[in-house]
Amino acid sequence: MQDEQYLARLRTHWKLEAAFPPMAKLTEIVGLASTSSVHALAERLCEAGYLTKVDCRIAPTKRFFARPVFGFVRAGLAQPASQEEPELITVDDYVIDEPNRTTMHRVKGDSMRDAGIVEGDVLAVEHNTPTKPGDIVLACVDNELTVKTLRMDAQGRWYLEPAIPAYECIRPRSALEVLGVVVGPVRRLRH
Questions:
Q1: What's phi and psi for 39, nearest 5 deg?
Q2: Mind telling me the catalytic residues?
Q3: Which H/E stretch holds residue 64?
Q4: CA-CA distances (angstroms) from residue 69 to 11, 51, 90, 181?
Q5: With the CA atoms of 69, 95, 15 and 53 taken in that order, what torsion angle do they form, in degrees rounded to the nearest 10?
Q6: Which of 13, 113, 148, 189 has the most other CB atoms within 10 Å of its CB?
Q7: Strand 87-89 vs strand 67-69: parallel, antiparallel, or unpaired?
């Protein structure tokens, strides 16, 4: 079996348990017959950057969670498959710039559909970030949370605009607090 297959088994186990057992128990998980084989595998995966050793155990590195991106694919006419080496990225690499200032929020409702944000999406929201008109923001308006586009009217008053015309703009009666800027959605097409 190739190391990639063992790595896949380790990833599956991590997804279920969020931890690795002691090395002796890893023999069952990866399907190797001896702990010496597991130690050799762990060494190879550490050298490749997927794992790190902590005391007598292994732990995943950022590369462990990375997935290959195989170049671009057209959403129109087909094109030849890329022969380039795939880039490895994690969802965090792609969406999150400031991990200590970013929270995730699940979307409910359809008012931002035409901006590409649909019900069920998980939004990465960066806090303590300067905002400007046109930013999609997470805001607290009159003590209620919403995601909308931040706008300013001709009188210099802030308001929130939905992405579809069927909904009215939200003009705060008392308070509007921008909690963060939406930096990107994460979406699953199948559950």
A1: -60, -40
A2: 111, 148
A3: helix 62-65
A4: 18, 20, 10, 26
A5: 80
A6: 148
A7: antiparallel
pTM: 0.73
Using alpha carbons, select from 151, 191, 186, 188 the residue that is nearest to residue 172. 151
Chain centroid to Cα 180, Å, comes to 17
Tens of pLDDT along the chain (191 residues)? 699 899 999 999 999 999 998 888 999 999 998 989 999 999 999 999 999 998 878 999 999 998 878 777 778 777 777 777 778 888 888 888 888 899 999 999 999 999 999 999 999 999 999 999 999 999 999 889 999 999 999 999 999 999 999 999 999 988 899 999 999 999 988 76
Q: b or e along 54-67 (b: 16 or more beta carbons within 10 Å of the residue's beta carbon)?
A: eeeebebeeebbbe
Give the Cα separation of 51 and 143 in Å (integer): 45
User: Minimal CA–CA distance to 14: which of 31, 3, 29, 24?
Assistant: 29
Four-point Cα dihedral 3, 27, 62, 64, nearest 10: 40
Residues in the chain, overall count: 191
Dist. CA 186–CA 56, nearest whole Å: 36
Residue 33's contacts (CB-CB under 8 Å, 6 or more residues apart) are: 27
163 and 112 in contact (C-beta within 8 Å)?
yes
